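Q: Given only this backbone (312 positions), what sequence would you predict?
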């Protein structure tokens, strides 16, 4: 049976025989009324999975909403045990993030020193990274409604971090262009240093704004070389030598071809005259196989060895 009024989508491929979902009446009623100016009927080709009983579906979870154009929205859903696991996992993750956020909020309201505020900020940064990891996963791993809720939590985390930065800036009289949280983290990291003087401090560090980071590290100005990495980028700071030369030397020691990765050395642009760009360089991981995500963390020992061996 061919019905010209049934809505077809150009991007979909249909078999010769399809089922039709009718809203507002059966297909014959729609066929008679579809051209009426006041018609509220709709007939769409059904692309869903058909079962003998609705109970066989177990659960149905919307995992995505896509826009084809301004008029057409496409809902993406999963069903079955996979959907039930996705819903349960999403609820568990939301509860975990919510509980941690509440605990940090309570600690923040009671914080009466810059050190306590820094602890709250570090907890928020860690929670933010966890939330980013959850929302950045496969679409089917998280229900759409839970993904939206996590997005609201992430905005709340950003607002709290902004409040903490302002509070720390006032307590420590930190300059406007310097990030007081980064300054606190850098000083804490250097204070807790347990390596011998001939070794290089190599640590993960949350670098989301490179300009702020550069101004912050020059404000602290460590007396020894330091390497801080975040995801695919490792920033090298040397108080006396050209960091680009150091980074190029470290790159020669590193061989990550077995991991499908290459290296790119980048000079750090000068932020302002008080922050000479030649003291900083970036050693960036570049994928050779089109990998979407790469991180220095699995290659920490190689990075540490190479920057120590190439130290000017």
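A: Predicted residues:
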């Amino acid at each position: 049976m061919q019905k010209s009024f049934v809505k077809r989508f150009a991007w979909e491929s249909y078999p010769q025989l399809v089922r039709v979902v009718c809203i507002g009446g059966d297909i014959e009623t729609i066929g008679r009324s579809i051209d009426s100016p006041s018609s509220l009927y709709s007939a769409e080709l059904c692309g869903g999975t058909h079962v003998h009983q609705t109970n066989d579906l177990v659960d149905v979870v919307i995992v995505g909403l896509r826009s084809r154009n301004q008029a057409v929205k496409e809902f993406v859903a999963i069903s079955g045990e996979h959907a039930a696991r996705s819903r349960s996992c999403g609820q568990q993750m939301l509860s975990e993030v919510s509980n941690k956020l509440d605990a940090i909020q309570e600690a923040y309201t009671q914080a009466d020193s810059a050190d306590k505020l820094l602890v709250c900020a570090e907890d928020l940064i860690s929670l933010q990274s966890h939330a980013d990891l959850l929302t950045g996963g496969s679409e089917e791993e998280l229900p759409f409604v839970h993904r939206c809720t996590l997005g609201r939590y992430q905005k709340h985390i950003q607002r709290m971090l902004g409040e903490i930065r302002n509070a720390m800036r006032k307590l420590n009289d930190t300059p406007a262009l310097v990030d007081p949280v980064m300054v606190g983290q850098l000083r804490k990291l250097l204070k807790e240093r347990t390596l011998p003087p001939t070794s290089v401090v190599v640590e993960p560090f949350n670098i989301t704004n490179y300009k702020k980071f550069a101004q912050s590290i020059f404000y602290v100005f460590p007396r020894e070389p330091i390497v801080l990495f975040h995801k695919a980028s490792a920033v090298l700071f040397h108080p006396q030598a050209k960091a680009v030369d150091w980074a190029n030397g470290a790159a020669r020691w590193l061989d990550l071809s077995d991991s499908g990765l290459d290296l790119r050395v980048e000079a750090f642009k000068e932020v302002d005259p008080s922050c000479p760009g030649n003291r900083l360089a970036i050693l960036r991981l570049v994928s050779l196989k089109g990998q979407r995500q790469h991180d220095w963390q699995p290659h920490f020992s190689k990075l540490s060895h190479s920057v120590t061996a190439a130290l000017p």
